[in-house]
Fold:
Amino acid sequence: MRGLLPCLLGALVGITVAVPAGARTANIPAGHAASVDPRIGSGGDGHTFPGATVPFGMIQLSPDTAMPDVKHAYKWAAGYQYADTSIMGFSHTHFSGSGHSDLGDVLVMPIAGDVKLEPGDPGKPGSGYRSRFSHDSEVVQAGYYAVTLSDYGVRAELTAGRRIGWHRYTFPAGKPAHVLLDLRPSIYDYAGKVAWASLRVHEDGTVTGCRTTRGWAPGRELCFAMRFSQSMTSRELLNREADIAYKGFKGPGNQAEDSDAQNGRALVGVFDFGKLKRPLEVKVAISPVNEANAIANLDQDGSGWDFDARRAEAKAAWDRALAVIDIDAPTTTRTLFYTALYHAMLSPTLSMDVNGDYRGPDHAVHRAKDFEFYSTWSLWDVYRAQQPLMVLLNPGRSTDFIRSLIAAQQASPFGILPVWAYQGLETWCMIGYHAVPVIADAYIKGVRGFDADAAMRAMVASATYAPYGDLADYMKLGYVPIDKEPEGASKTLEYAYDDWSLAQMAKAMGKHDVAATFVKRATNWRNAWDPQTGFMRARLSDGKFREPFNPEAAGYGSDYTEGNAWQYSWYVPQDVAGLIRAMGGDAKFIAKLDALFDAKVDASHFKNVEDITGLIGWYAHGNEPSHHIAYLYDYAGAPWKTQERLKQIMDTQYAARPDGMAGNDDLGQMSAWYVFSALGFYPVTPASDEYAIGRPFVAKAAIHLGNARTFTVSASPLDDAHPYVGAVTLNGKPLERTYLHHTEILAGGELHFSMQAEPNRDWGKSDVTRPAAMSRYGQ
Structure:
């Protein structure tokens, strides 16, 4: 998901500071984590955060450079933009690569000297508590972030556990040390979205609080517990509500400061520690439920005071997670590959306390007894490759993911699976019911450990909930009429694919009546096909296509979701063979694909559609509807053209620098595309057991599977002079087809690519060698 509208509607200046000797090079981690650069995506439109977290962790402790109002928040959806020159603090929750903003909870800022209570203007140094910084002082590693706050001379270091954020602040000698806690900021809208907050200091010095926000998921409540490694010398808690009156709230105004407790909408705490002789450590736990659970999380997961040990644990967690794949590749490719794998392992996030409590979409508290509850589901994005990647690499984790989806459905007031949810709550962002293919893909590929019957009930309930996205008309007419519902063409196409995936799982479970119903619905894509124009289009309730028609038009209210006809007319992953026939056969299909990629398109064409980026012709790699398209040449007997397009995409859309992503990472989807494509295959049709073969971009990759087997991909010679696949062998035997079965990967063995300078136009040309999905599965 990218832009705000569809979801709302459905360099250092003036001051330098000495950096501790070796700060940029000391303690560089060994292992796979050493190849991760979390700065990739933190500039441009990548929307990733550079801070500390662990795989799928509840905490994302990261610097925030800005928290603008929602109208200007797009580029700061992760709270940080690499081009910024000041930091307003370090908060504990962030999305990775989303196109919408929220979170930024429990913002902490260390201050040396005088304390200001407002963040100030980044263009006016000294106007508030924010501080300038230099990228030269940053250390950004998997599980660790450090920076020097230039205006204070404070060295800030961050690391994280699953539920705990760990801070270490080294203050300059001779200056009073303070920690400011600001409960007003939200990445969605600074100060204006806090409905209520509480803050108090307990007798033992533990600081706790909660706040309820009116952001993307209205009514979201988050609580926290915080402890310091040294005793406070004094403190003050303030409610500055008069300062947010301009947001439309007419409150009682600023209330008197208090040293023990405050309630209100604009709470700030300042904790004083005098002149310190050693670094100050801070640990923070969060809870979606209450303060008591936050304290319990802190007690269980955050014992002791040993920042370096916690940093080592975070690094070890990443080394273990990333070691699932070993690759042989040049340094830059290693950085891109392991950073992509890292980003693909950030979401969904743990959203459950140590006692099993979690918040559901009904806003009630539920308890998971024998599984871990995860949320942060950008399902329109991650069903395509990020979740299939987890099924391949970590099927045990996928079991908990699916159980979490089922639990959310069971707690939903509407009885349907999540659409775009975080911290248990629903936002209704984007289209489709894409939790369905997430579950079906896992089941088809052998993931078990969840109640399949409950899953099927949840899937059918989601696919038949008439009020959602005009499913009522879809079920009645076989398409979503554009005069009843915006983006009708996209919705028709995506519903039809989701229906197909549901049918695959139903068939595998022996539920043939359910399968028959949804196999029929899966053919509804044909109702969006217009043979006269050769594009997918939206129809009116009377069956006519909407006029006038411009295949280049994009934007909210058009026939399409974050795309145009050129981008969406390829979205029939369940029946590519049928789409080829509709377009007039292989030659015409290939010619139209070539026209897509080779078109002369000025990026300014989409200047008002912030989501459509990474253009190669009309192909837009920066947004998900295009992600499968390069592989479609395989289905028309021209895999050499897939190989050409993949190299074109890899060379232009990914780079090992902060602005090295063509578009939002979208909770790991852009990154998962890179991982799969670098390995040489891609799940064009999740919920089939097929992967379309492309070409590898690493000389060797060993995938260490959960069943103790290893599947190795190798390629030689692998260089720019040999971009084409000459031949492929699987376990030493020639592989004439251009697809792999999931079971073949699970069996272990070796897939070898012999690369060559010129295309092999015969390999994969015949019908029987092509990926087939719908036609092969008997529909």
